[in-house]
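Notes from hallway chat w/ T.B., transcribed later so I don't forget. T.B. wanted the structure written out for a chain they're using in a teaching module, and asked if we could keep both sequence and structure tokens in one place. Agreed to drop them here.
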Amino acid sequence: MFDEIFLLDCLVYIAIGAIGFKYAEFFLKLKTRRIKAMFLWTLIFAMGELIYKNAGTFDDSTNILSYILLLGILSIVFFEKNIPRSAFFLASFVAGWEILRFTVSPLAHAMLGIWNPLWEQMINALLNSGVMQGENILSLIQLTNRIALFTTLLICRMVQLAMLYFYLKLIRKNFVAKDYELTYGEMWFLLIPCLTILSIDITLRVMAYSVDNSALMLIYERAPSTLLLLPAVSVLLLGFTITAVTLFKGLSDGKIEYRKRLLLENRMAEVRNRVNEIENIYGNMRGLKHDLRGAIANVAACINNNSVKLSDEVASYLKGMENIIARLDFFDNTGSPIVDAILSRFRSVCKAEKVSVDFSFHYPQNNALNIYDLSVILDNVLQNAVEAAAKVRNYPFVSLRSYEKGGLFFIEVENSFDGNLIWKKDSEIPATSKQNKELHGIGLANVKRIAEKYSGDMAIDTEKRDDKNTFQLTVMLYKSHQGD
């Protein structure tokens, strides 16, 4: 009997170790190579559990300590430190595995309850028939019972492992993003359901094994309703944890959206202030240019009227002043001084970053689009494009163009990039490569939001052209519809 049970324990602990590693990998960041870490994790866990169980020091009602201790040490060794995530990983995993014992133990009782009467009938038939001698029948009984018990335990463990995997899969599916930083308050919100499950599990074990290890079977005999109640309670408790995880995801998503909305509002306020400043500066510049040009023309006319030939030095000086005035003009003439100023700023950035620029943009006639919204779009798309192109060594470039078709206004941006693009899960927008992902990575989301405000949309595409990776972004806006 020992050999079969020992083999089963080995297989179960190896399976638990592998599932535990995959589950931990979802929450924590590995320190070393995955295959090596998974092999060592599973081996150490299985050996530790076998040693713990066969030491015989602790009873079955306290084996939770072994799981928590082993998994805690392994997570410290193989994964980077993250206390809130590690705590939830440990509590949810151990709580799930332990409480599921009360889900499958009624199954074992039911299977043995069906097998025992059938086996007794078979033994009685053999004894009455006289086909086998008593000693042979006794050996057959022992062998068959060992096979029946091993088969029952194997089926129950397989069911328990399958339910554990499904439970953990639901948690992973409904948990917050991997880059979300849990606070300690949020950690306790998630831990409370798990600790509740562990407390109930320990209480049930103390009650069940207070007499001996068969006490649980006696409870099933005396109160048959527990065969259904215990599995139901176990599944409902696990559902409690999954519900808490799902609820927390909704709350965290709402918090992230709130932060993004605040950032967008602050960004819009900054854009408005910048636009107002640019309008004031542009107005002053136009007056200054007009006055300077008039002064230069008057000086030249005065000298000519007095029949004094302009010396080369004076002519050169006046020409220099005209050139200085010309530099006050923006390179782009889009029809909007605000857009001119934005494009001028990015031209300067591209020049500093040695990025080739090709801008062909015009502001739609009749002020069909809100200048603040258009400024946010241009500021975000060009910022991303310049940052991506600056990382490319071989011919970095950024191009911008706009055109109109009927009531539609299109903005197209194309830039070179290094080819490394990570897409968000279930999203049309790539993930940011910056460290603070809650404060960054919302630029394109804001562009898409503004496009939808104008009943339009945003499209992203990548292409490899002449061994160069290009990123293409198109924003479509309805000119006839301005958002509130």
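Follow-up for T.B.: The CA atoms of residues 53 and 63 lie 8 Å apart. Might be a good example for the class.
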